[in-house]
Write a structure and sequence with these properties.
11 helices; about 280 residues; mainly alpha; MetI-like fold; globular
Length: about 280
């Protein structure tokens, strides 16, 4: 009877601990979700009334005057981000292929893979200062392409790690079957490994793009800002994130209203990227 009683007490204690930690986890998650929804509500409630067609098709009005828009920032953000994608995506996918397909048993590849894993959480301001020292200071002025390079360096580790993980999930039997049919290694990688993992790799690319969409710190050190519409990436170029920062800290109510509207557009864009990535991952 004594053994049975101690067993029942142990079971009750285990259930009590389980309930306590489950409740603690629930309250912690609820706390985080509260602030998340509070921020989203704030952005929607203050940004939605200030959304207008003029925001997208007009350049800024002189400081202190009403009207105008953020066309220069939307165009600049699209150019800087697009160039970053063109630079970062091929290099990131190539790095992931190297880690899994060519360097699977290489100590050098393992070391580079560890370094890449650590770079995923690298503070963006460090990347911005590095690109400033290497690309901006020698030239003598800020320019949009340097901002694209900084963003590409931020998205590259995300894409490389995701690509390597997805390629690891491809069964080796598929590769061996292709080799048995006389395929070269590059053909196996292109037609077997990448084809089988393409949905997961695409998800990594989308997450990488979402990672850089809302970055401000590296752009302050590289592309900086411009109050006029420019299509030349070798000149200072406005972006949404930097413009939101400048307008939000400015003294004019019109700037504050446009900053809220731009923040809403940026939030919706980033949210759309994450939803798309989750959808592709589930279907994969």
């Amino acid at each position: 009877m004594g053994g049975k009683g101690s067993l029942e007490r142990a079971v009750k204690l285990r259930k009590l601990k389980s309930t306590f930690f489950l409740s603690l986890s629930f309250l912690t998650a609820l706390y985080g979700l509260f602030w998340l929804f509070w921020i989203l509500f704030d952005v929607f409630s203050k940004g939605l009334p200030n959304l207008s067609l003029e925001l997208f098709i007009k350049d800024p009005a002189p400081p202190g005057e009403e009207g105008g828009g953020l066309r220069h920032a939307f165009i600049g953000h699209a150019i800087v981000t697009s160039l970053a994608v063109l630079i970062g995506v091929p290099v990131g996918i190539a790095a992931g292929v190297f880690f899994t397909e060519y360097g699977r048993f290489s100590k050098l590849a393992e070391f580079l893979r560890t370094v890449t894993d650590s770079l995923v959480s690298l503070p963006s301001i460090i990347v911005g200062t590095l690109v400033y020292a290497l690309l901006v200071k020698p030239v003598g002025h800020f320019y949009g392409l340097s901002g694209s390079v900084a963003l590409a360096l931020l998205m590259l580790p995300v894409i490389a790690v995701t690509t390597a993980q997805m390629l690891k999930l491809v069964p080796d039997s598929l590769r061996e079957a292709a080799y048995a049919l006389g395929a070269y290694r590059w053909q196996v990688i292109k037609d077997v490994s990448l084809a089988a993992a393409k949905r997961g790799i695409l998800t990594g690319v989308i997450l990488g793009i979402a990672r850089i969409t809302g970055e401000t710190a590296p752009l302050l050190f590289t592309s900086f800002n411009n109050f006029f519409t420019t299509f030349n990436p070798l000149e200072p170029m406005a972006t949404l994130t930097v413009t939101i920062f400048i307008y939000a800290t400015g003294p004019y109510e019109e700037w504050h209203a446009q900053a809220w509207a731009a923040a809403l557009v940026l939030t919706l864009g980033t949210l759309a990227f994450f939803v798309l990535a989750k959808t592709l991952l589930r279907r994969g």
